[in-house]
């Protein structure tokens, strides 16, 4: 008999483990790496990004567009590696919020959590309204009825989103995986066809030195980064994943590399065509504008579901700590925070619906949601990079490589954040003021709760841990 088999045969229960983890009630240890990858990839919406962003990127940066995207992919990979420093040691539905709290303390954690929540909700609203408007444009050509059709599509999508999340984690992630896989496969096929039609002319990808400007590159990276935000959301599935300390960091890296590769191919194809028609290269090259709209809509609606899913898990962690109302921390018999999912889905629906029904447009919504998504995620990513070396030093595991990687990634993110804020100040001051006001109010409310709530500050940053039932002979656990 092997030593492992003998140890299993003679295994004794651990009597020092509690009966429940802080995330009791969740369906623990059932999700796989596939679920983490599906959540992360769907949140980045690579199919929709490939068809929408490159043309706008070219309009902003000219020949520097592809270079900016390559730099953005490198920065995202660095941030993913930093997140892996935490996710190999901590498992929490709070993801970056919990990581920042464990490194920099509860006050910084509240700021990071508020920024992350703002980012999730802003992108969820943006993609929900964008996907719905594209479907509405396919259904009707009457300008006066597009808003009503779009609201109807958003209502139907929200009902499906809340229902899917409430049914269970694996259902939501598998649906996301199927939708995004179909959309990405279609876009890749179009991309290769487009590249073939140009004779694989990659000259537009080469930057012209005369167009180089540090400010243009920084703003371009900030814009390109919007196409990758949400990749970290797979970390929120840690407590529900099998072998979370392996599956979560692995799943996040796989999703980053896959998304980066797909977006680079799609961008190369668009830039190869963009000289002929900068406003709509896909439609002009192949005459398939309706198909492009359908793919983008599918990808964006899947993104909205993924962002709502991530926001639900973040709210679950905050609720279990006592920072926000307890309803967000309740779980259904299926082991999912269904009530929180329904409430968050309704918030995501209500704002864009109100804007459209009151006579506004999607551009009116984006005045606030676009800078909210950009600033929220940049701030959350920067804080987790600053927190990583502090956390590792505290537990005696800081290495030179980890310190250098965290410092470089954090410095780059802060530089991009400052540039993005300066650019937004010049182009969209009203939106920036609204975003800063929202972030300030939410952070202040959280800090007040930390100071006044009984025992709240001691619970902030809570994470999952092994319980007696996770071990051999798990019936021998002791009460808390």
TrEMBL record:
InterPro entries: AA-permease/SLC12A_dom (IPR004841), APC_superfamily (IPR050367)
Source organism of the structure: Microbacterium immunditiarum
Keyword Transmembrane belongs to the record: yes
TM segment ranges: 33-52, 64-86, 107-125, 145-165, 177-196, 216-239, 251-274, 294-316, 336-360, 372-392, 404-424, 430-450
Main location: membrane
Location of this chain's protein in the cell: Membrane
Top-level division of the source organism's lineage: Bacteria
Any Pfam family the entry gives: AA_permease
GO MF terms held by the record: transmembrane transporter activity
Amino acid permease/ SLC12A domain span: 36-392
Entry keywords, A to Z: Membrane, Transmembrane, Transmembrane helix
Protein name as catalogued: Amino acid transporter
Record membrane topology: Multi-pass membrane protein
GO annotation, cellular component aspect: plasma membrane
